[in-house]
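#struct-pred
JK: can someone run the complex with NDP? inputs below
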Amino acid sequence: MKKKVALVTGASRGIGKATAVKFAGEGYHVIINCAHRQQELLQAQEEILRYNVTCTAFLGDVGDFDVCQELFDRIRQQYGSLDVLVNNAGISYVGLLQNMAPSDWEYVLRTNLTSVFNCCKLAVPIMLSAGKGKIINISSVWGNVGASCEAAYSASKGGVNSFTKALAKELAPSNIQVNAIACGAIDTEMNRWMDDDERSRLIEEIPAGRLGHASEVAELVCQLSTENSYLTGQVISLDGGWI
Ligand code: NDP
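RT: done, structure tokens with the ligand placed:
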């Protein structure tokens, strides 16, 4: 049987890398991407290639439509199909709103939300011609409830959640499922700014008594990629009972 193909944006480290490695372990060809740290991306590619699958590493900002166009041209040429799109690339911004520059607002929105529009817009025609597809957006519990000092981040992820529900309705008749995972606190570089005290206080708030692992998000992404074509338009919280 032909191997399936998955694109994971922001896959040089953290949740994206764990997801790409998990897909490779399940026999998918994988396209990985990041915008800045090429060395990390190549390291991830090396790990994925050990699984006897193809891995394309693409350096570029998924917030930029022209860059995404190049990425999808490569996917069409190299693979001719795309079974799963995981919109994972994202950045956080922690700070008071009154201190936030308009350019920082734009950067957060473009990286976390416009990137999802860009990749979905380009993936959908490929999935339509195949008559099937799965889109999984990596979102945040802050997109559901809002976080103090993270208004832009919360707005971007709230946008991802609504986008997920809307696009799911648009694409359900075409057998393409769109879901989001609203992550709680996952132990990645994104949370390394906390000192030991802040981390302990956060853990005290989480009923599961710990941060989540990137591998746990990866596992849910893979489940959503293979199972149940009736499950669509959902924003599934994965947060250890936190929010
Ligand atoms: P990391 O910072 O560890 O990884 C982020 C990834 O995104 C990196 O590969 C980074 O690579 C890439 N990236 C950043 N900007 C761009 C861009 N413009 N274009 C392409 N790639 C980009 O974070 P996580 O793994 O923790 O986060 C992954 C996703 O999970 C994000 O969407 C985040 O919002 C979400 N999330 C994470 C939570 C957590 O607690 N960790 C909680 C809730 C949601 P590079 O910098 O080299 O470009």
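RT: quick notes.
The chain is about 45% helix and 15% strand.
The helical segments are 14-25, 38-49, 65-78, 102-130, 142-145, 151-171, 196-205, 214-226.
JK: thanks, will look after standup
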